[in-house]
Structures are given as C-alpha cells and as structure tokens.
Design brief:
26% of the residues lie in helices and 27% in strands. By secondary structure, it is α/β, with parallel strands linked by helices. Strands 1, 4, 7, 8, 10, 13, 14 and 15 form an 8-stranded mixed sheet that branches. Strands 2-3 form a two-stranded antiparallel sheet. Strands 5-6 form a two-stranded antiparallel sheet.
C-alpha cells in the first residue's frame, strides 16, 4: 500500500525555519521530520511513498538524490572521480516526488497524485507530525467498515479539524478549526479508498473543508481513536519539544532499531 505525504505547504506558522526549507525538511535529531515519518511507516511494512511537493521542492528532491551523503560516511577519490560509501544502510523505500504546485491547496495536491496511486486504497498523512499509532490496527479498522475515508482522531488542545464521532466510530460531522476548539481533533494518519478523488475538484480544494464535510454528511468518514502520543510541529515551541524528546532517547515514535 502506498503512503501519500502532504509536504508542499509554506509552513508560515514556523517561518523562522521554513523560510530556508519546506517545513517537512526541518530537522529533529539531525534528520528531517519527513524522514522520521517515513521511518515510522516503514517499520509497519509500508515502503512505497508518494510525496506531494510545492514550496522549495528542490530541497526534498536533493535530499533523496544525495541520500547516502546525508546518512553514510563517504570517501571521495578526486583524482579518479570516484566515491566510496561506507557503512551503507539502504532504506527499503520507493519514493515518488511529485510537483503538486506552489499554491495548490491540500485537496488539490491529493488530486494531482491520483495517477501514482494505482487506483487502490492508500495511506495519507501530513509531513509535519509524528505519533505512535498502530498503523496495522488503523488499516484493519478502515477495512472493517467499508467507508471511503478513515482519519485518526486524538484528544488534544490543538487547532485542527474538529469532529463529532459516534460510539461506532462513524464521523457524524466535520468542520474546520477555530480558536475555541480544544477537544477531539483530526490527527492525520489517514486511510483513503480511491473514491476519495470524487470529492476533490481542483487545485483550490482544501481537503479539510468541503471534502471532509461532505464525507461526514454522507456517512463516509470514520474516525479511529488514538489515545497515545501525537504531536504536530507548527511552531518553534513544538519543534523544541520534539527535539527534546528525541535527545532524551524516549521519543515515542522511534520504534526502529537500525540507523537513526
């Protein structure tokens, strides 16, 4: 199953860092948060990524083009124009990097990567948040109800899409955030069936508005409730919190044993 990651926004709420690079390339523990997200998915066996790019997309493309330079020791033999990579650890990843437009909204970005999904269900997440959700359990939940979309819901005082969820997990309503909200929210880490593309009109479609609202109204949006760790990185303060967790050796999302 492919994993689609939204990584093309401007990241204006953390502009101290994002004026130099896309927000998903801001580093935690010396590695982009995008890398952390991909490592997490990979531990559950999801290795095929489609990344929606926009703002400063070349930074992401250069990172993967020179991946070994970022992750391994190297020897450059300048006289013979050769490079030797030492302690090489190769990720089992296939990474498709797609230019989805500089000013395209989230729904428009998803619509643009349709040719890369193979007409099959796919995972979907944002390139600026980490968690310790059980992705296998999330997928089983999605497959069990047969609806178009599943989102991971979390209880946290964050300004994210606000949900009304029934006892059976059906999302009865969805609306965009406002400053008064601080309860059950959309934490991302979603699963979509191919029918989702019917809800996406054009580049101006904001996924968290009309599509989500329509899905909820039609009973096609389900919420998988996660009670564990979840944290987005919208501000310098949140970036510092994630860095501190990583440096403590107790980052809840670090479930891999190999490199990094």
């Amino acid at each position: 199953m492919k994993v689609v990651i939204l990584a093309g926004g401007l990241g204006t709420r953390i502009s101290e860092e994002s004026h130099l690079k896309p927000k998903p390339m801001i580093e935690i523990g010396g590695r982009p948060i995008l890398w952390h997200i991909m490592k997490y998915y990979s531990e559950f066996g999801f290795h095929d990524f489609v990344i929606c790019l926009g703002y400063k997309q070349y930074v992401v493309k250069e990172f993967f083009a020179d991946y070994f330079l970022h992750t391994s020791d190297v020897t450059f033999d300048l006289a013979n124009n050769q490079m030797e990579v030492h302690n090489n650890y190769s990720e089992p990843w296939k990474v498709t990097l797609v230019d989805t437009g500089l000013n395209t909204m989230t729904g428009g970005r998803i619509k643009r990567i349709r040719p890369y999904t193979g007409g099959e269900p796919f995972m979907l997440t944002y390139g600026d948040g980490v968690c310790d959700v059980d992705l296998h359990a999330l997928l089983r939940f999605h497959e069990s109800h047969g609806k178009t979309a599943t989102i991971t819901t979390v209880n946290i005082a964050q300004l994210k899409g606000v949900l009304d969820v029934g006892s059976d997990g059906r999302v009865k309503s969805f609306r965009e955030k406002n400053e008064a909200d601080a309860s059950l929210v959309n934490g991302g880490f979603m699963v979509m069936n191919p029918e989702i593309f019917r809800y996406l009109k054009d580049d101006n479609t904001v996924f968290e508005r009309e599509p989500m609202e329509q899905l909820a109204a039609e009973g096609q949006l389900m919420g998988y409730h996660h009670q564990g760790f979840w944290q987005c990185m919208d501000t310098q303060r949140e970036m510092k919190k994630l860095e501190e967790l990583w440096q403590s050796g107790k980052a809840p999302w670090k479930i891999w044993k190999n490199q990094g």
